[in-house]
Amino acid sequence: MASRRVTRQRAGALNDENTVVPRLTRAKVNALQNEKAVAPLAAKQVNNTVPAPAVAGKKRAVLGAKSSNDTTTKADSKKEGIDEKFIKKALGAKGVLSTKASATNGVHKTTTRTTSRVPLKATIPEEITEKEAKRSNGGSGVMGLRKKRVVAGEASKEVSKAVEAAVKATKPAMKAEPKQSKPKEEKVSAVAAVRSTMTAVEITSVPEAKGAVKAVPVSKKVAEKPAPQPLADDDDDDPLMVAEYANEIFEYLRALEDTTAPNPDYMDAQEGLHWEQRGILVDWLIEVHQKFHLLPETLYLAINIIDRFLSVKVVMIDRLQLVGITAMFIAAKYEEVFSPHLGHFKYLADDTFTEEEILRAERFMLQTLNYNLSYPNPMNFLRRISKATDYDQDTRTVAKYLMEISLVDYRLMEYLPSHVAAAAMYLSRMILKRGPWDPSLLHYSGYTEAEIKPVFLILVEYILRPKHKAFFNKYASKKFSKVSLLAREWAKAKAPLFLSTDR
Asked: How high is the pLDDT of residue 161?
């Protein structure tokens, strides 16, 4: 193992950074060969060659410190000085030999520059003066390059001046050319051609007559707003919107509105019931719906089941609450993913009815309705109309409050859910000052302002004088941005403009 270690040290001694290895350039080698021919070197000068390898175990000398191997004599340094003068004379350039720092430290930097390069004077153009050429000979030649660039810039300036002079020489000739005025007859014929084409309703471009001036025709008829695009055109990339079937879906929902609408005068056939009692029941169901955190569709379907059942069956006052709680139980199982347990509905009814009574009422009500629960609630149509408003959240929140008025106010029972949704959106935009009822809203709702007006007046009258506490407090909460309070303040200021004094 020891022999291997010594071998490694010997191999690496030639590259040791502390060894004094004189730099032999091509010119120096030639000089040494000439000297060998005259007289052989002395025995003492053998130390100028590569020194003997270091003995194993000795530490390397610190960089910059004096090395024991540095045995160069004064005669050697004087010889090196002669060599320097000889090389300077041969090359005619400075800075070819090693620097002063490398000579004292015994460290020589390796460089890739060739010492036999051509002097910089040969590469300098003739335009530069002798003074500038002498300045560029000493150093790295940067000044020579800079002067070359300056000369190129001056040459380009001279070229630009010559171009400017040529342009100035051509300007009088250009001004001397008279403008060719177009004949009057051709202008008249062009105007006549334009007027003849303006009679059409849609004009895209006018054919150019020979020598005629281009004119953009203006149609006499005022251009109308572009027709709104169908809902399916904007949601093709969203699979959840089922844009391919959107139009067919809403056509089907509009057809269902007539089949699932209750009788608006069914209270005339009820002996012990009144509209006020129905309003109290609906107000209580809104509170139950809020405690269970159910979907809005569940509440609308529950009230629709109650009204449709009461339209065909006579119910006594003591069984009205059973009808309400059973309708909510059916709607939750139909609309919700996880519907509340039957025991929860029994508890909210203060254990007035047993679970068996609720299940028997459920079977009886479903048979009466022929198991038809496909009710198109106003929420579906509100979402469609919101497409025209870019789904404005504030407008939708106020519209939800206005739509739920149709649940507690029996006067809105005769209007279809799509009609109520359109009126709610119309009044919501009026309260929030969102602009007029434009063609896009007309397209998506399907109702004009004249058709909306009857429902609009009922909504304004109700928000001016709300009658149901649980319903009002629900939308007076922070969750719904207190829109019931906002609507009431608006009605106090604006309702007299829409309602007559005798109402």
From this structure: 67
Both structure tokens of 134 = 């002498």
What is the rounded distance in angstroms from the CA atom of residue 261 to the CA atom of residue 304?
Answer: 8
Apex 451 CA angle, 450 and 454, nearest 5: 95
Alpha-helical runs (H) found in 352-448: 355-368, 378-386, 393-408, 417-431, 439-445
DSSP state string for 27-60: HHHHHHHHHHHHSPPPGGGGGGSPPPPPPTTPPP
Q: What is the C-alpha separation between 384 and 161, in angstroms, rounded?
A: 71
Instruction: Give the pLDDT confidence of 220-237 residue by residue, as tens digits.
Output: 333 454 555 554 456 677
Residue ranges of domains in the chain: 2-105, 119-165, 185-223, 260-368, 378-498
The whole-number average pLDDT for the span 120-133 is 45
- The SS3 of residue 353 is coil
For the chain, report the end-to-end CA distance as a whole number of angstroms: 117
| pLDDT given for residue 227 in this prediction | 58
Give backbone dihedrals phi and psi of 437, rounded to 5 degrees, phi first: -85, 95
Predicted TM-score of the model (pTM): 0.56
Look at the chain and count its residues.
503
**Amino acid letter for position 127:** E
Q: What is the spatial distance between Cα 58 and Cα 152, in angstroms, rounded to a whole number?
A: 61
Please report the DSSP string for 209-242 in residue order. PTTPPP-----SSPPPPPPPPPHHHH-TT-GGGT
Beta carbons within 8 Å of 373's beta carbon, 6+ residues apart:
301, 305, 330, 331, 334
User: Are 260-368 and 378-498 equal in CATH topology?
Assistant: yes
Fold of 260-368: Cyclin A; domain 1 (1.10.472)
**For 364-370, what is the mean pLDDT?**
96
pLDDT of residue 247: 87
Q: Residue 425 has what pLDDT?
A: 97
> Which string of DSSP letters, residue by residue, matches 357-376?
HHHHHHHHHHHHTTT-----
Contact of 328 with 345, CB cutoff 8 Å: yes
445 pLDDT tier (thresholds 50, 70, 90): very high
What is the DSSP code (8-state) at residue 382?
H
- Here the tokens at position 157 are 């300036």
Report how far residue 335's alpha carbon sits from residue 373's, in angstroms, rounded to the nearest whole number: 10
| Statement: 378-498 belongs to CATH 1.10.287.380 | no
How many CB atoms lie under 10 A from the CB of residue 65? 11
Reference 418, options 455, 390, 450, 369; nearest CA is 455
Q: Which two tokens stand for residue 385?
A: 């109309």
465/212: higher pLDDT: 465
At 20, list the tokens: 């004094």
CA dist., res. 288 & res. 80, Å (int) = 109
pLDDT band at 151 (very low <50, low <70, confident <90, very high): very low
Question: 89 versus 287: which is more confidently predicted?
Answer: 287
In the prediction, which pLDDT does 262 show?
Answer: 95
Q: Is 460's pLDDT higher than 70?
A: yes
